Amino acid sequence: MPAKSESPGIPDAFWNASISEVKLGYSTAERNRSVFYTCLVCGKEFEKGVIYKDGEQFYEAEKFAGMHINAEHGTMFHWLLGLDKKLTGLTALQKGLLNAFAGGQSDSEAAQALGIGSTSTVRNHRFTLREKVKQAKLFLAVMELAEEKLQKAPLVAAMPLHQEIQVDGQPVVSGEENAEIISSYFKQGPDGPLLEFPRKHKRRTAILHQLIKRFVPGREYTEKEVNAILEEANPDYVTLRRYLIDHGLLDREEDGSRYWVRSQAGSGQDGNINGGIETMDKSKRKELGYNYAHSHRPMGVYRIYNSVNGKSLVGSSMNLDGAWNKHKFMLDAGLHDNKALQADWKTYGADAVTFEVLEQIKPEEEFIAEASETLKYRKPLAEMEERWLEKLAPYGENGYHRQK
Length: 404
Description:
The protein is an alpha+beta fold. The chain has helices at 12-16, 19-24, 61-73, 76-81, 85-88, 92-102, 107-114, 119-152, 175-185, 201-211, 223-231, 237-246, 282-293, 320-333, 339-348, 378-392; strands at 26-31, 34-39, 45-47, 52-54, 57-59, 165-167, 170-173, 220-221, 250-252, 259-261, 299-306, 312-317, 353-361. Strand 9 (250-252) and strand 10 (259-261) form a beta hairpin. It is flat and about 85 Å long.
């Protein structure tokens, strides 16, 4: 199914067009035994066989469609570059650089025109943009393969949107109401993004019962996995997670180490719309929770790397899994204690900053009786961090550290 956007003013033809058609600015389609050239910007159509006049000159439909693009909307390059960052994924600085490159400016000329310092910074940006191209190609290939497999896969009995929702055996949302709520709040389909989280209890119930279908019954999830799944529906994944738990659809260990779908989650008229699959028994969950609590977290040295200017921040942590989450939270909130890194995060955007594990400590034992047993690894961890600081020298122009 072709992707669509909530962006006003962009016709569906744009999202259904191929890359080559997007570059031209118009698509070609046959309808009622006639061929039409459709402008991907405004949706205006030009029928093949009809002669169009511009001043004293006459043109065939396809030629005139191209002229219409340039006359009404400018070049497709500039029109595409002017789209919102949510659609292009490009920062204002990246757009400025692309515009400079298209204009034939050298790296030094682009650096001077945009006021971003040295030519090496521009070269780093070029590298980042080329990486985006590679990532886009891979993503398109993966999506096409996934859709091909989906089309070939046997049909699974999906739960209809008009099914009645029951809580504790009592109907809460009728089938007709459920279908209306889902179509209103999931504009791109039940598996698409959630427009907003409603305040009214009935609508909220319908939304939550729809969201829980994104989780597999019988499987356990980490909090990070739960957040990632819910964030695809709406950025406020914390609220969604809390309400799924409050409504008894999602359950978790007390320490938040594991989450799972409750066996009664999503109950409809049949009592269980998830096919009656039970989650693992309590003793098994308790065993997994104990193993998680008494196992080593990954320990080691990491760096936060800015791919635009090549600067690094090196650090160490007794829990590498949580280190990046902590840094990212502070950066997103504008509260990071490293002011230079915070400023670059604001200037270049989150896409320019990556988290890399440089080296890990291999624990002597698989399980620990209590957390205090990990204290013996602090000294070797600090020594490991010092070695990497010496090796990378992330000071001055090379990093976010102050020279000791």
